[in-house]
Amino acid sequence: MLKDALYYPHIGLKNVPLVKSMALLYDRVYRIVPDNVIPDDHPDLQPLLEDGLVGAMIDPTRYSRAASDNFLAKLGDWRAAALSHQEEDAEQISRLHVDKTDQRVREMFSEMGCSDENEWMHVPTELASNFMLYLATEISKKNNLSLITNNWGAWTGANYFRLNGKLDETISCETKLDHLYDPYSLFGLILSEMIPMNISDISSDEIVSFRGKRHDEISCFRNAITALSEELKALDSDEIKIDRIRDKVRELNRAKKDYKHSADLIGAKRWFGVSMMGFPAPIVFGNLMSIPAGSTIALGAAGLAIGALYSITSTREDIRKLNAENPASYFIELGRSFKNYTQARGSGDINFQAWSCMEEYVND
Q1: What range does the domain containing 32 cover?
Q2: Kind of pairing, strands 28-32 and 4-7?
Q3: Same structural domain for residues 135 and 284?
């Protein structure tokens, strides 16, 4: 968990509890805003915005060419349904600012029949969303930022792109993979009870004060999350040292306890919410940790768990490169805890939701 983050895919900051929760955890939270565009932010967030450390704007112009290169190079692989754009699909149209793309992408959208007005292109949502994921990924890589979102589609899409689409849609996390050479899976490091239950009642001014006076506790908590995640990702052989993981878990639990205790400054009452960071690891990792298929196991008393999400059809070298260059994005879900997470398609935990979203994304 890096100290600074890029919030995507939206420009405006309107979800007040979400923005406050990000401000509790990160030193700086950036967003992608084209030059001369004024975001529509919620007035209750003004103290945080004036503080200058939340909502800082990154102009996409210098990143648009590289993002467009990657987008165009992989477009055929994704077989985006949006390429068959028809006028009757107007209800599935999103606005995309011209500064976020280069000339080649703009010409492609124009040839598809997409209209434009006042530097905004009206692009099929599926295609616009895919492009924004490439752009966010490019910006986060170049600036060493955590990619953070509260949108399941964006989270699964970003991980799909970062894994270069090497997911076998016929293999779920419940499938035996003994026949595959060096199989990998994306696991989820899941933390709950990270956000005060009364976050809506805590003012932005109080958040600013908390950030200044409790910076050490916030930083220690964040570093403990990173240390555990890095320990998990580094385990690339059958001889996994479970004791090392347990040590990091204990450190994280202590740091989380100190962080929550320090929040007495803002009158935090009870805690809720879920955050999840994806990391690739060998299937043997799940076996040795005794992780049930598509489920989670508790790692600590302070709301910490781990679970398998979906399988990766890639080589060990590819995964090592991914770990070095592109740590999987970070997801925040404020609504409920993974301890009682359910989904519309039936009962299951947060991992079932992630798998379902990824499977739907691959199929689309």
Answers
A1: 1-149
A2: parallel
A3: no
Lowest mean pLDDT across 65-69, 149-153, 360-364 = 360-364
* Higher pLDDT, residue 77 or 88: 77
**Per-residue pLDDT, 283:** 76
d(CA 332, CA 155): 10
294-333 as b/e, with b when 16 or more CB fall inside 10 Å? Answer: bbbeebbebbbbbbbbbbbbbeeebbeebbeebbbbbbbb
- The number of folded domains in the chain is 2
Domain-ending residue, one of 116, 149, 182: 149
Tell me what the pLDDT averaged over the chain comes to: 80
Q: Is the distance from CB of 236 to CB of 321 less than 8 angstroms?
A: no
Spatial separation of the C-alpha atoms in residues 115 and 3, rounded to whole Å: 39
Q: Is 174 found in the same domain as 145?
A: no
Q: What is the pLDDT of residue 278?
A: 85
Whether 331 has a pLDDT exceeding 80, the answer reads yes
Q: DSSP 3-state assignment of 38? A: coil
* Residue 258 within a domain: yes
Token digits of residue 311: 């399988």
Domain end call among 149, 182, 203: 149
Crossing angle of helices 103-111/64-78, nearest 10°? Answer: 40
